[in-house]
Structures
1.
Amino acid sequence: ISSPFFPLDSSWDAAYKRELQTFQDIGDTGEIWFGEESMVRIIRWLEKHKVPLDSSVLDIGTGNGVLLVELAKSGYMNLTGIDYSPSAIQLSEKVREKEGMSNIKLKVEDFLAPSAELSGFDICIDKGTFDAISLDPSDAAGKRELYVGSLCRVLKPEGFFLITSCNWTKEELLNEFREGFEILEELPTPKFCFGGRIGNSVTALVFQRK
């Protein structure tokens, strides 16, 4: 993931510069946010609901692009990844080349101010980018509103939005995306036990744009 609001010399871009160097040195793609199971969860949902393989998919805050590679391996053909960090896009390009997935499109984009051509997607996926926005010390609430507005612009009516979060509960996410979206499904995530109470450290939801 990367934050679409921190300056480019921030910790996000610096982290991806380090991961890019590591990949060039030893071929390691770096951090997989939320782990492998989060990617499997997304792909299983798409397959279960027989989402056509030619559906246009946008990965918001693609990071190292590994999710897109896994989607391509599962047969999805119309894949786009965006990230605010140029180093993240450089890394994802290297990963794409290594895997021979030339059909994956990658772009440096600020999702809070998306370019005009970023539109008409059937599916949008977020694994942690909305979380990163939520941590912004400068007007996080305003940034979240911009995010929802951008999502409405880039996602087709009746399109699907799959979000994985470690900052927000189901109820909080329902509130954040109440304008223009309806909940379809909560996806199972690992549970933890603390002080005798059972909870989820990760929330994964599927919304549909109205």
2.
Amino acid sequence: RRDVLVLTPWLAPIVWEGTFNRDILNAQYLQKNVVTGVVTFAVEKYCFFIEGFMRSANKYFLAGHQVNFYLFTDHPEKTSHLQMAPENQLFVIPVQNGSRWQDISRSRMDIISSHIHRQFQHEVDYLYSVDIDVQLLAHVGVEIIDALVATISSWQLSPQHQNKACETGPVSPAAILEGQGHFHYTASFYGGSVSEVYKLTRACSAGRLQDTESAREARWHHESHLNQYLLHHRPTRLLSPEYYWDTEL
């Protein structure tokens, strides 16, 4: 494709529809005999999205390959009727009843890093975090697999980009001032090898704790810390905004 940017300044590929051959990638992926994990959170009002997300992800996310879905929720009973593909497994991880979705959102990096250390690193080779209010409409395949993967925010392609992309000032150590980064990444879909995701989530969790101790808060919360980390630890693969399109646009 010549209509879009397909390579970053540091020579990492940017994946758009039409820039890869999924058959070739599937054959290579199968030879590795790996397992991929997906982490998502459904607390309070977001439990409404469990069925839509799980049905679409079960159908379209790495279809035909082994995927472990890790669902953190305060309503585990809402998953009892879900049917998974033979190659997929659903692990429901209860969170404390009464947990506010805002609290879970702020601490999700800490939760992910803790569970990688205790559990996920022994069960999966790659791990992706995806928001529960996502509806997959087409196949998301092994073209997303790499060591450290980030998704370009769809707001970067909009006229309102300047209002969304950068922090307005150094309120938090996570602040990225205008002109510092090449891309703005969404925290709604990111991942990579389980070891790289562990490093990322630990760093973001530490940054959020530093904010709390100094009574500061990043403008876009964990997304700001994600972007700060990826500014200094550049992704090895970028996914185009096609992979997480904000319906507000």
